[in-house]
């Protein structure tokens, strides 16, 4: 799994590692909202999609 590998790489005691993991998660979420989601919404025009009901 990825999480145990990241946990072993991070320096410091457990509480410092926990804070670093929280910072990593926050950075990933921020990058998703800043760059990935806007790119996705422009590239894949989801507002024009329609779903038809099957009778």
Give structural attributes.
single chain, 55 residues, mainly alpha, 2 helices, elongated
Describe the model:
0% of the residues are buried. The protein has one domain. The chain has helices at residues 2-9, 14-43. With 55 residues, it is mainly alpha-helical. The protein contains 2 helices and no strands. Helix content is 69%, strand content 0%.
Short note summarizing the structure:
The chain is built from two helices and no strands.
Number of strands: 0
Task: Count structural domains.
Answer: 1
Query: Compute the gyration radius: what is it?
Result: 19 Å
Sequence of secondary-structure elements: HH
- Estimate percent helicity: 55-70%
Oligomeric description of these chains:
single chain
Topology (elements, then pairings):
Layout: H1 2-9, H2 14-43
């Amino acid at each position: 799994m990825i999480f145990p590998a990241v946990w072993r790489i991070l320096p410091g005691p457990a509480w410092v590692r926990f804070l670093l993991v929280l910072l990593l998660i926050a950075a990933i979420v921020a990058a998703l909202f800043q760059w990935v989601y806007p790119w996705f919404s422009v590239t894949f025009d989801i507002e024009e999609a329609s779903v038809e009901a099957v009778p």
